[in-house]
DNA sequence: GTGAAAGCGCTAACAG
DNA sequence: CTGTTAGCGCTTTCAC
């Protein structure tokens, strides 16, 4: 078994209290004592027991990250950033996947783990904001994504309406007139797709252009491909598609290229999220680039603030985004 | 604060022992008592305290996943599979990133967290197998990837030499004669790239063809792009590139297409890992598809077996792979 | 500056 | 079948 405080204390000829002081570094200890104790700690390879600290102090040093899926490039990047930056708060990240399922989200929110972590960072798809406010006493929760919970929950996100408006305006500015949107998810309560659709419609309305919206089941490449195929079969003449995620856009792009379309000549394609794939696609994908490091920092900071003051006013943090214009939406040279 | 055993016991008019029995379900409890206690548990919303259980029982229900980076599609997919399947073992996954850095790997392996988890699943890049065997008493470790630790460590992997041989033979069979390999990492002790290079050389030797190896710094798309650019500038005439990861291949593909090359007409491109990107690239990427679900299952099973018997003989588990032939290496129609 | 001891919530050995 | 209780390793209050 591993070494404990008492063994270190005995060996160093001091009490456990003193060893504890040396380890935590807070209380005053005579320099000579401190050095002697430290030597014994190194010698014995003493490591404080996390379970005992947790039990005693009520803090585990663990933060749960609850995501629809880690394999998605967007969430993968975000998880990586969060894991790295969590270190500044002495937190370790624990990841749990929901598949976007409401039942599973509920389960993870109410489960044993939710009480054993210092906080949760979650990107809900299935649960509505009002569902999310109804939770028995588990750890503080910070949401990723715009969630209209009537100011009752902390959340961090970009301004999706604005980003979508900007993207659609860009497509219009490059001379496109028949612009389809791929990515509405009518079956989800999650408002992100709805907000992007709102921005899309707004820009089209400004220009007096008609909207053409193609719903999808999920947000994978295959869904983008299927939507593009449906769009094609519908006979709709389209000169641009705005996809609500880069994955959808890459799927759509794949189908367009396979059908022999010239992108951006015949069809412009824009995405959302700025995943690495999109930068190396051919043509490279125009996209909305959220400031992901800022998003990760904001989420952690928000959680940290909440822990410091449980009764503070819930925050709504908006992080920056940037329209990243690449080859897939270049203006037609006609 | 939250409810504990004692409060449930008092309310139900039984001892903590009985409540504990009801919760764990192991010991015998009279049906009437069980029901009464269960009702109080539900009423009070009692949830067992993970810290106390951990302290008492020595098991945290946590498994650390130590990876170079979560944002990489391959590791993202694997992490997702592991997180899902860990549930069958009642484990929650905790993820830590190393960036492939040896110091960081050491740190995570020896740190406090490594003692507070039931086990670790790790994909080492910086530490050599012999480094990995030198560990003070932390939790059991299962390695991902072929690690020649002289049979001292549990590890699960595909047969990299075989997979690379197969891929190279395929390129030769489609009529390619000047086949470059992109992805050696001479600065890393990790043997994976070396094994793939071995398979590549073997197949070339069989056919009496020369090898042309391009090293890379890391395994991102940008590195593949840089390698392809260097290859081009070197003036080497090449009709196929075998990249040791799909990310490298996608970077190389991007550069090739940007230079106006026809893929697969002028140049065949093959990758490794079967990430979703590759399937939707244009042309779709030929690749080695490891059986990732099997890999995840094997790693968890291996860890579970190790926990059950600390002194069992270390295992070397080999999971299946399949050469997935797609458009990027189609035979030339000349 | 340092020691003694209580107690966080749980499990399981011991008693009945 | 159920009650009582020691103790997992740590922090911290209280004494000295």
TrEMBL record, chains A, B:
Q: Which residues form the HTH lacI-type domain?
A: 3-57
Q: Which domain of life is it from?
A: Bacteria
Pfam families xref list: LacI, Peripla_BP_3
Give a yes or no for keyword Ribonucleoprotein in this entry: no
SUPFAM superfamilies on file: lambda repressor-like DNA-binding domains, Periplasmic binding protein-like I
Under InterPro entries, the record lists: HTH_LacI (IPR000843), LacI/GalR-like_sensor (IPR046335), Lambda_DNA-bd_dom_sf (IPR010982), Peripla_BP_I (IPR028082)
Transcription recorded as keyword? yes
Name of the protein this chain belongs to: LacI family transcriptional regulator
């Amino acid at each position: 078994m591993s070494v404990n405080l008492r063994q270190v204390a005995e060996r160093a000829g001091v009490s456990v209290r003193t060893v504890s002081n040396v380890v935590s570094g807070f209380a005053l200890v005579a320099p000579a004592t401190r050095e002697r104790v430290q030597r014994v700690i190194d010698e014995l390879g003493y490591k404080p027991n996390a379970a005992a600290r947790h039990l005693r102090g009520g803090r585990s040093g663990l933060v749960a990250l609850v995501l629809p899926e880690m394999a998605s490039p967007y969430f993968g990047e975000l998880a990586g950033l969060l894991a790295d930056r969590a270190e500044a708060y002495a937190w370790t990240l624990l990841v749990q996947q929901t598949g976007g399922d409401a039942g599973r989200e509920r389960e993870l929110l109410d489960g044993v783990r939710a009480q054993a972590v210092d906080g949760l960072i979650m990107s809900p798809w299935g649960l509505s904001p009002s569902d999310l406010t109804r939770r028995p006493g588990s750890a503080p929760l910070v949401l990723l994504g715009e969630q209209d919970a009537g100011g009752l929950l902390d959340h961090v996100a970009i301004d999706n309406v604005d980003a979508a408006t900007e993207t659609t305006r860009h497509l219009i500015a490059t001379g496109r007139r028949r612009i389809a949107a791929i990515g509405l998810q009518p079956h989800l309560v999650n408002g992100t797709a709805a907000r992007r659709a709102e921005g899309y419609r707004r820009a089209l309305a400004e220009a007096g252009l008609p909207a053409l919206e193609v719903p999808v089941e999920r947000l994978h490449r295959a869904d983008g491909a299927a939507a593009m195929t449906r769009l094609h079969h519908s006979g709709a003449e389209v000169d641009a598609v705005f996809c609500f995620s880069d994955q959808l856009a890459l799927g759509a792009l794949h189908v367009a290229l396979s059908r022999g379309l010239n992108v951006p000549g015949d069809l412009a394609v824009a995405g959302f999220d700025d995943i690495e794939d999109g930068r190396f696609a051919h043509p490279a994908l125009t996209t909305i680039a959220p400031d992901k490091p800022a998003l990760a920092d904001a989420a952690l900071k928000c959680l940290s603030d909440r822990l410091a003051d449980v009764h503070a006013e819930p925050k709504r943090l908006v992080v920056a985004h940037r329209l990243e214009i690449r080859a897939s939406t270049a203006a037609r040279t006609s």
